[in-house]
Amino acid sequence: MSDDRTSRDAIEQAYPQSFKELCGYVDILASRGIEWGLLGPREGDRLWSRHIANSLALVDPIPLGVTVVDVGSGAGLPGLPLALARTDLGVTLVEPLLRRSNFLELAVDELGIGERVRVLRARAEETKERFDVVVCRAVAPLDKLLRWTTPLLEPGGQLIALKGESAEDEIRGASPLLKKLGLRAEVLELRAAQGVDGTRAIRVSR
Ligand SMILES: C[S@@+](CC[C@H](N)C(=O)[O-])C[C@H]1O[C@@H](n2cnc3c(N)ncnc32)[C@H](O)[C@@H]1O
């Protein structure tokens, strides 16, 4: 696994226009994020190599100028790094827990991105709005995600769920539901920048 310093340098090179804002968010995660218990204390040593690199892996597969919802955003992952790197996107962070949604409100305010990024305190399955792209990380297995998030998709929209090694198994497990909903799923191999660890995602579309 790449170390945090190497990943930070690689991300600085690949995203020079957003790097200052990404540093601001990493500072918030390293301080309030850990103090409020949204991230474990050991995560402080892998904020760039794991959390930011993972989130920025979604920069490439998302089309230009679309609306994105990050379901189960927690401390803002992957939605906040994505919003900082892709200023063309309108991003909604959906998170049901009060402490987490308060954290997100403060982070959005401090980063000065409130015009483009909104926090919605809700469960995915209660959300009534529609979006072009649903993203998520570490929220639920694919079959549950499909039940929660397909009603949130605009016609022609897509779900991109960050997943590790389990991606193929999850697609196999969800295949009856995928078939019933008329959806197809594929595994994407993604990397935020040269010099950071790659990750995988499941993309679901019609
Ligand atoms: C393991 S955390 C992952 C947080 C963040 N996505 C990350 O990768 O660090 C799962 C998050 O999903 C949220 N969650 C659980 N059930 C949910 C639901 N039905 N709708 C939306 N969010 C949900 C939890 O409150 C929690 O913040």
Description of the structure:
It contains 8 helices and 7 strands, in the order H-H-H-E-H-E-H-E-E-H-E-H-H-E-E. It is of the alpha/beta class and 206 residues long. The mean pLDDT is 97. The structure holds S-adenosylmethionine (SAM). S-adenosylmethionine (SAM) is lined by residues 71-75, 77, 94-97, 100, 123-125, 137-139, 148. One of its GO terms (cellular component) is cytosol. Its EC number is 2.1.1.-.
Level of helix content? Answer: 25-40%
User: Any idea what the radius of gyration is?
Assistant: 16 Å
Proportion of residues in extended strands:
15-25%
Q: How is the quaternary structure best described?
A: single chain
Q: What is the assigned CATH homologous superfamily? A: Vaccinia Virus protein VP39
In whole angstroms, the N-to-C terminal distance is 35 Å
**CATH fold naming:** Rossmann fold
Largest sheet, in brief, is: 7 strands, mixed
Bound molecules: S-adenosylmethionine
Shape call: globular
Give me the secondary-structure category.
Answer: alpha/beta
| Low-pLDDT sequence parts | none
CATH class: Alpha Beta
Which CATH architecture would you pick? Answer: 3-Layer(aba) Sandwich
Widest sheet, order of strands? 3-2-1-4-5-7-6
The secondary-structure element order is HHHEHEHEEHEHHEE
- Report the average pLDDT across residues: 97
**Count of alpha/pi helices:** 8
Would you report the number of β strands?
7
Q: How many structural units, i.e. domains?
A: 1
